Amino acid sequence: MDDPIFYGNVPQEYSVENEVKLNSKITNHNKNKEDLATKLKLCIRKNKVDLANICAIELLTSGGYTILWDTLYEILIENFMVLLVPKLLDIILDEYQLTNNIKTKQVHSQKDLHNNQEIRNHIAYVVTLLCLCPKNYYDIKCKTNLETEWKNIKEADLIELDANAKKYMTKYTAKRSYDKVILTDISKFLYCIKNKPITCIQNISTMIQRDIQIPTKIKDNIFLKHIPKSMEKDLSWILWFIIDDMKQKEVKATDEHLTNLNNLIRGLQTLYIIMYRRKKYTYATLTIITAIMAIKYHENIIWDAQVPVQSPIMLKLIATINILYKNIYKDKKFLKNAFTEIDKLT
User: From the CB of residue 81, how many other CB atoms can be counted at a distance below 10 Å?
Assistant: First the structure.
């Protein structure tokens, strides 16, 4: 018989029987879901394992499954965690797939969702893992000044960038003439690859939002094998082709890190698709920038950096996760103290 602590529905003592308003912007304990998602990010950045899991539980039990996963992906992206622990990306993507499969096959209501032991464990595992792994936080709201820098570029450099942009459009697309705005976008992208990728967030984000469909003439590119049919002709994929070209120029075929680098880029593509579909264009852009940085600095990345999956903190948290659910919903003093601690974080 399966251990009831880890499989199937949770024991009655630890179940959460509340009614959930799925479309509400407020959680069961009167917290704004968007604000709580922000608090979850802060708890994870500060490695507050228990507080982070409390935020996640409150979102999950309040009909916030999607916003919870969006937030976990955003944390992974904006902290450039996959450059510090490359194996982490595949783990998080696998966990997302696992929870979605469980949700599809076993869950028939919101109550089934947050009272499913496997989903509880998988969510706690991901939240705790993100707390325990190293981070390099970048404030995506930070102002960048590419446009000012662009105005000061030498004319000869601009001509070269424009010529290269046209070469890429000719190489990868089946269209013969191109809008000047698109060529300028690609020229800026090429400039940022060479200089400061992080300054390109706004420009790349604008580009991938353009409502332009351009058929590619590259039929066997490995990137295309991971692209949904609905996105095959999206203009933004030329950026990934350029990244692939950059990788071939900067990383030797015999490089010992090439397989790891290819796996990371494919994972970032998957993450790009997820964030693009959710219309989270800034985060989609950051997956592109992360891929560029992985190529530029591949020799400095610790590809075998260990993921703390067997950390004592992790094992203890998973073993006691139901008690945390019980305390949140049946101990008002515990809940009040927990949210007081969460609200103190800055």
Answer: 23
